[in-house]
Amino acid sequence: MPGGKLKKTVTTAVKRRRLDVHGDRDVAANKIGEVLSKALIAEIAKLPLLNYRVSLRRSVFSRMTREEVLHGKKFRKFRPDKDMNRVFRAAEKNQDELFSTALTRNIVKGFRLTEMAKDPEAFNLLVDLMSAIRISTSHSGYSLKTETMQHPTQAKSGLFDDPDDTASNHAFMDARRRAYVTRAMNEAIDAKLPVMDIAKAGLRAAIEYTLNHFTAPITADDVFPHSRLKKVLNASISDPKAKAQLRSREEMKGQYERLGGVLRLAIPGETNAQSVTRNWRRDGTTPLQGDDVAIEPPSPRRFVA
User: What is the pLDDT of residues 1-25, one digit of tens each?
Assistant: First the structure.
C-alpha cells in the first residue's frame, strides 16, 4: 500500500499496463453512457433534486459539446478531451470532483448522438448532477499516523499535508474511487435498474468512497494530530478552517440522502462534541484502496457549530 510520501520508480512495462487499464475503464464508461442515453429522455422527470451552489455553473454538457449542422440537421459533437476536461473542472474551480472528470467525460462520449439531438437539455440535467458533488480541494484528503494524502490545491491551502509530497498517493486513490463508482454503476446496469437509478447509484458511490476512504473529517481524533492544520498552522479543531472542512463533508451527506442513500446508524449516546472528534477509521486501518472495497454508506452525521 503506498505511503503518503513514497516516491516510486515506474517502469515502461508498468506504464503500459496502466494505459491498458485506463483504456479498459474508458470503454466501460462509454458503455455506461450509452446505457444512460437510451432511456434518459423518457425518465428525465425522475431526476433527483440536489442542492446546487450559486458558484456552480450549470449546463456543463452544452459546453462539453458543440452544435453542428450536417445536411440541414442539427447534432452535437464532442469537443476534444482536454477541452471537455477543462469545461467540467471550470464549472467550479478549486474543487475535487467526486464524480471524476475522466469518468464524466467518457460517460458523455458514450451518449448516443441521435438521443442527444432530440433533447440536449435532458443531457444537461444529467451531467449537472455529476458536476454537483464537489468538495474544495483544500478540504480533500486525510492525515493518519500511517499515511497522508492531500488533493492538489492552491499553495499552502491544504489542511492535511503538502500536495507535492502526496501526489502519487492522490493519483492512486483517485483511480480507486473511479473504479468504485464504475463498479457500482455496472452492478446497477446488470440488475436492469432504470436509468435514473443507475445514475444515482454512481453518484452515491462517489460520495461513499470519498467520505469513507478519500476525505477525512479534519477534526477526528485519528486525523487532526497528524494534519498540516495542526502541525504547521498550529490551529485547533474549533478553527474556522476546520469547521468549514467538516461542513463540506456534511453537505455531501445531505446530497447522498437526496440521492436516496441512508447514512450509517447514529451511535447511541454520542454527544455533539463526541461526534466532532469521532475517529474516521473505525478499526485503525489506513483507507481501503483495492478494487474489492465493500460498498458501504457514509458515517453518521457530525455536529457542525
Answer: 444 443 333 343 433 334 344 568 8
On whether residue 122 sits in a domain, the answer given is yes
Query: Cα separation of 30 and 33, whole Å?
Result: 5
pTM comes to: 0.90
Cβ atoms of 302 and 280 closer than 8 Å: no
Overall number of domains in the chain: 1
CA atoms within a 13 Å half-sphere pointing along the CA-CB vector of 131: 30
> How many CB atoms sit inside 10 A of residue 137's CB?
20
Q: In this structure, are residues 154 and 94 in contact, taking their beta carbons and an 8 Å threshold? A: yes
Residue 14 falls inside a structural domain: no
Q: What is the pLDDT of residue 72?
A: 77
Find the domain containing 78 and state its range: 24-277
For residue 173, give the C-alpha cell. Answer: 486513490
Q: Could you tell me if residue 285 is inside a domain?
A: no
64 close to 84: Cβ distance less than 8 angstroms: yes
Check if the beta carbon of residue 171 is closer than 8 Å to that of residue 155. no
- In whole angstroms, give the CA distance from residue 115 to residue 42: 11
Alpha carbon distance 137, 131 (integer Å): 15
- Cβ(267)–Cβ(232) below 8 Å: no
Give dist(CA 117, CA 67) in Å, integer. 9
**Could you tell me the three cell numbers for 135?**
468538495
In a domain, 286, yes or no: no
Instruction: Report how far Cα 135 is from the mean position of its chain's Cα atoms.
Output: 8
pLDDT tens digits, 115-139: 998 999 999 999 999 999 999 999 9
